[in-house]
Design brief:
Chain B: It is found in: Cell membrane. Chain B: It is a multi-pass membrane protein. The complex is a heterodimer of chains A (495) and B (274). Chain A is of the alpha+beta class and 495 residues long. Chain A contains 14 helices and 24 strands. Chain A folds into 2 domains: 226 residues, Periplasmic binding protein-like II (D-Maltodextrin-Binding Protein, domain 2, 3-Layer(aba) Sandwich), CATH 3.40.190; 219 residues, Dipeptide-binding Protein, domain 3. In chain A, the strands form 6 sheets. Chain A has a 7-stranded mixed β-sheet. In chain A, strands 1-5-6-8-7 form a 5-stranded antiparallel β-sheet, covered by helices on one side. In chain A, a hairpin with a 5-residue loop joins strand 3 and strand 4. Chain A is globular, with a radius of gyration of 24 Å. Chain A starts with a strand and ends with a strand. By secondary structure, chain B is mainly alpha-helical. In chain B, helix 1 packs across helix 3 and helix 9 runs antiparallel to helix 10. The radius of gyration of chain B is 22 Å and the shape is elongated. In chain B, 50% of the residues are buried. Classes of the chains: A alpha+beta (495), B mainly alpha (274). Chains A and B meet through helix 8, helix 10 and strand 19 of A and loops of B.
């Protein structure tokens, strides 16, 4: 029987100070209702919302509002709630409240509905909630740690937020500003800060200036191209952590404009032809790390960094392209039967720099790449229309790994943009999700990752960088691979 | 009181000529490929090896500024040639035909002249996606109209001059009238306007690239380089200074040319566009 148990409160929170922590972020919730799109992630990141479980910085999950979560049969997980947990307004967080929160999430949020698909949630005691799955499930604790399943008081929603976190919201301007004050009822003790002021500052350069001038103690999403200047700033530390997502170039094997991508050898050649260390150095100022395989950015699967495209191998890339019939002409460009090897690469946001380095590296192989940096909605539109060759996206790798891999390579996977298929995929996905032992499930995940390397539906490059400016007055900041766990911690204080 | 304008014109020609020369001779002056990454350390300052330093990808900034001049100046020159010829010919034709065509065309010219070039270019980029070609197409849709309006007005005036009336009475054909009566009155003002619009065009081309809607990577273009350098304004100001000065010198040169030419025409008693 698998038991995931917590060890009392979140610890050392207990010596509350009187200081105000000022935070500058790139984005902020549009609503205080955690079931509104994306709101829960922001609410969690600022210490307002909590779930039954949480994801730790090492990628493992641990109980949060639950005292323990145990598998009582292959299809039943039982969560025992911590005693004495209340919502901000004083209501008890009992089994009935948790069930109501889960059911509202399922009804009102598609992401939550996906996480709770085929899961029956029932209160089986004052502090006991059972989760019954249709099939044996090993990933329910991971799902419960997802930000979209934070526990909220349904009676107050959607007009008011009544959550459980160490900081309660006392002021809010949609998408602009949020003020939080210490929640004296918090179950883990006295939170370290009296007040938190979160301000959205959309322009990355403006955020960098705020960090440099000391106008905020924590500044999120700093531009990596100012790393040198920010690192040297007095009174502030630049905390850079590779995120648990992999910036990946997805390839369209059905593209009419780039027919070469239908050939697995060409896709593999593109991946071997990427000097990931150079991409990291030039595009992220050395703040990220190379990702040799898609799963490499998941800290819970450390061996994934040893799988896949572990080195830059131009010779192999050239050989594969030659074997596929794309040979270098007198002009230095590769062509086959009069058709040039070209492709269009769409990038989004900070990945523009990654795209530009890839363009230069692939040009050295004789491949002509047009790079355009566009809005993410335009990337999605191009994929929907089928009018695309290559796009960059960075899907999360940390969470319910079997489901995340199914999204990448499964037959109906949301990130399987190229509709890749292989007879081995279904069996490995079933093993990854449902094999009886954890070792077997882990092995299946690694095998799937290896299969993705072989099929090369996409090219893993590097994780995104979470670059945060943290004042040296701040203690207790925890760099986390998930952005929404990364800002305000209950143990944080201002010295 | 205005001067002769010759000095100003000469300064303008010298500045523009210098920039054109540097752009044309770019491959001879710089030994680096402007798109080649890692030819030097990233964000290095000016040195003997890299005269203007390097950018975040370790590309030689001097090579990019010089080759960027080719992109910007060539795009501007091509667009200008097109708007000047189309606008002048359409305006002249409208004036020559006269009557109802003239009455219909005049409000159209006024409407197009009132249209902000940038807005039209942005609309086209929104429709067809960002590229220097698309941005220039937006410019062309609007920018021929000032030339058409000027040309129409000057041709009408020229044809009403006593010398033109007399020539026509003596049996001069259309071509002869154009050659001896219209063209001498048209060329100066059109040149002044062309110099003024060229300065504006440089701003539009660089501005659209600055917004990421014009030249696409890895093309070197002054506006795009200004955008790339903006992020490191304090730590590596050379990234912004180099293309910024290039734009400044070119626009200054064109403005001097336009002002000088205007003064020269003014002294010669010709109509000059404001």
């Amino acid at each position: 029987m698998l038991v995931l148990a917590g060890c009392g409160g979140q610890a050392t929170a207990g010596q509350g100070g009187s200081e105000t922590l000022r935070v500058a972020t790139s984005a902020l919730a549009a609503s205080v209702d955690p079931m509104a799109e994306l709101s829960a992630s922001y609410l969690r990141s600022v210490g307002a919302a909590e779930g039954l479980m949480r994801t730790r910085a090492d990628g493992t999950v641990a109980p949060e509002l639950a005292e323990k979560v145990e598998a009582t049969s292959p299809t039943v997980w039982t969560a025992t709630l911590r005693p004495g947990v209340t919502f901000w307004k004083g209501g008890t967080v009992d089994a009935a409240a948790v069930v109501a929160s889960m059911e509202r999430a399922r009804a009102e949020n598609t992401l939550a509905a996906g996480l709770l698909k085929d899961v029956t949630v029932a209160a089986t005691g004052d502090r006991t909630v059972t989760f019954t799955t249709k099939e044996p499930s090993h990933s329910l604790p991971s799902a419960l740690s997802h930000y979209q399943l934070v526990i909220h008081n349904v009676a107050s929603a959607p007009k008011e937020a009544d959550l459980t976190g160490p900081y309660r919201i006392t002021g809010f301007e949609s998408d602009r500003r949020m003020v939080l004050e210490r929640n004296d009822r918090w179950w883990g003790g006295t939170p370290g800060l009296a007040r938190v002021e979160v301000q959205k500052v959309g322009d990355p350069q403006a955020r960098a200036q705020i960090a440099l001038s000391g106008q905020a103690e924590i500044v999120q999403d700093l531009p990596t191209d100012r790393a040198k200047e920010l690192s040297a700033a007095p009174g502030m530390a630049l905390v850079a952590k590779p995120a648990a997502n992999t910036v990946t170039v997805y390839l369209n094997p059905s593209s009419a404009a780039a027919p070469a991508l239908a050939d697995q050898r060409v896709r593999q050649a593109l991946s071997w032809g990427v000097d990931r260390q150079e991409v990291v150095d030039l595009a992220t100022n050395g703040l990220s790390v190379p990702a040799s395989s898609w799963l490499a950015s998941n800290p819970a699967f450390p061996d994934a960094a040893k799988q896949g495209y572990v080195r830059f191998d131009k010779a192999t890339a050239e050989r594969l392209l030659d074997e596929a019939g794309w040979r270098v002409g007198a002009d230095g460009k590769r062509a086959k039967a009069g058709t040039k090897l070209t492709l269009r690469l769409l990038t989004f946001g900070a990945e523009a720099a990654t795209g530009e380095v890839l363009q230069a590296q692939w040009a050295r192989l004789g491949i002509d790449v047009q790079v355009r940096n566009v809005e993410s909605s335009l990337i999605n539109q191009s994929i929907d229309k089928g009018d695309w060759d290559a796009v960059t996206q960075a899907w999360t790798t940390l969470g319910d790994t079997a489901k995340l891999m199914a999204a990448q390579i499964g037959p109906a996977g949301a990130a399987n943009h190229g509709k890749y298929t292989d007879p081995r995929i279904a069996g490995l996905l079933a093993q990854a999700a449902g094999a009886p032992s954890e070792d077997q499930r882990t092995a299946a995940v690694y095998d799937l990752n290896k299969l993705m390397v072989e099929l090369a539906p996409s090219i893993p490059v590097h994780p995104r960088v979470l670059a945060t400016g943290v004042s040296k007055k701040v203690t207790g900041f925890v760099a986390h691979p998930l952005q929404y766990e990364n800002i305000v911690q209950p143990t944080m204080t201002l010295g | 009181m205005r001067g002769t304008g010759r000095g100003l014109f000469a300064v303008g020609v010298a500045l523009v000529g210098l920039m054109v020369l540097l752009a044309v001779a770019a491959p001879l002056i710089s030994r680096y490929d402007p798109a080649a990454q890692g030819v030097g350390p990233a964000l290095a300052g000016p040195s003997v090896e890299h005269w203007l330093g390097t950018d975040r990808f370790g590309r030689d900034l001097a090579a990019r500024v010089l080759h960027g001049g080719r992109t910007t100046l060539l795009a501007t020159a091509a667009a200008l040639a097109l708007v000047v010829s189309v606008g002048t010919l359409v305006g002249a034709a409208v004036a020559a035909v006269g009557s109802i065509v003239d009455r219909l065309a005049r409000p159209l010219f006024d409407l197009l002249v009132a249209f902000p070039v940038m807005v039209v270019a942005l609309a086209l980029v929104g429709l067809w996606g960002p590229s220097l070609g698309t941005a220039l197409a937006g410019v062309l849709i609007v920018l021929w109209a000032p030339f058409a309006r000027l040309s129409r007005s000057l041709v009408r005036t020229a044809l009403a001059e006593p010398s033109a009336v007399a020539a026509r009475a003596l049996g001069a054909g259309r071509l002869r009238l154009l050659r001896y009566e219209v063209w001498p009155r048209l060329r100066g003002p059109v040149l002044v306007l062309a110099a003024v619009e060229a300065a504006q065009l440089i701003g539009v081309v660089a501005g659209l690239s600055f917004l990421g809607l014009g030249a696409q990577p890895p093309s070197a273009e002054w506006g795009a380089m200004l955008q790339e350098g903006r992020a490191a304004l304090w730590s590596a100001p050379h990234l912004v200074l180099a293309p910024g000065i290039a734009v400044l010198v070119t626009v200054l040169g064109l403005t001097c040319m336009a002002e000088g030419l205007r003064d020269m025409l003014d002294r010669a008693g010709q109509v000059v566009p404001e």
